[in-house]
Amino acid sequence: MNLHLKPQQVSGEGYVIVQESLHRDGSLLQYTGMRIVEIEPGAQYSELLERDECCVVAVAGRIDVSDGEQHFAALGTRQSVFEQKPTDSVFLSAGKQLLVTAIDKARVALCYAPSLKQLPTRWIKADEVGVEHRGKYQNQRTVHNILPDSDDTASSLLVVEVYTAGGNFSSYPPHKHDRDLLPQESLLEEIYYHELNPPQGFVFQRVYTDDRSIDQTMSVCNGDMVLVPAGYHPVGVPDGFSSYYLNVMAGPRRIWKFYNDPAFQWILQRD
C-alpha cells in the first residue's frame, strides 16, 4: 500500500500537473482527490467536473477562475505559501466547466470530493478565511480554515491549510477519523500536500491504525503527497524548517469529529 506520492510532472499546454491523487476505481481513496497544477502566465487549465465538486485554491500566484457562467478575476494573495497569508479559493459543484487562467506563474490546488447536491459557485475570499492557532509547547500550528464543516458552501469537501514551525509536531496528539461513529468520530479520508521552507528539507509523517494493518513512517519532501485512507497521521517538523500542508477531507457525512490515540491522551492534560 503506497501512501507516499512523489511529484509526477505530467505536461499539458502551458501547464504541468505536478502531483495528483484522485478517487477512482481501484484507488486507495473513495471520497477524496487532489491535483496540484502549475500554470504559466497567460496559459489555461480546463476541466469538466462530471461527478465531483471542486475547491480551487490559489496556492501561489494570481489566477482568474470561471465556471462557464461566473468569472472571478485576479485571485490569490501571495507568491509563496510561506508568506502565511490566507488566500482566495473558489468552490464549484459538479456539472460546471472549470477554467483557470494564470495571470503570473501560479500553483493551484484542485480539491475534489463527490458532489452530493448542486450548490452555487462561490468565491471564498481570503479575508473570509478563519485563522486558528492550535496546540501548546512543541505542539503548535496555525490553521487556515478554507472550507470547515461549519461552512455549508460544499456538500462533501473539507479543506484547510496548516503551518507548523520547526521543532513542533502537527496533527498531534495523533488522531484519526476513520469510523462512522457519530457523535464520537466521523469517517473522513484525507490527503496531505506538503511544502517546506527551505525546500531541501523534510518532515516525518506516520500513518498507523490500532491493529497496525497500516503502519508507515515516511520522510516527506517538498511537493509530496501523503494519503490517509484510515488511521492516525501525525507530522513532525525538524528544527530549522517550516512546514506547510494543504488538507482535503471527505467521507459519507460532512463533519469532522476526530478520536485521539488513547496512548497520547495524557499530553492534552498537562498544565
Q: How would you summarize this macromolecular structure in one to three sentences?
A:
The protein has 271 residues and is mostly beta strands. It is 0% helix and 49% strand.
Overview of this structure, please?
The protein has one domain (4-269): Jelly Rolls (Sandwich). β18 and β19 form a beta hairpin. It is an all-beta fold. The protein is built from no helices and 26 strands. The chain has strands spanning 4-5, 10-11, 15-21, 33-39, 44-48, 52-60, 63-66, 71-75, 89-92, 97-102, 106-114, 122-124, 130-134, 141-147, 158-164, 169-170, 175-176, 178-181, 185-187, 189-197, 202-208, 215-221, 225-228, 235-236, 242-250, 259-260. Strands 1-23-20-25-15-14-13 form a 7-stranded antiparallel sheet, with no helix packed on it. A 7-stranded antiparallel sheet has the order 2-3-4-11-6-9-12, with no helix packed on it. It is globular, with a radius of gyration of 18 Å.
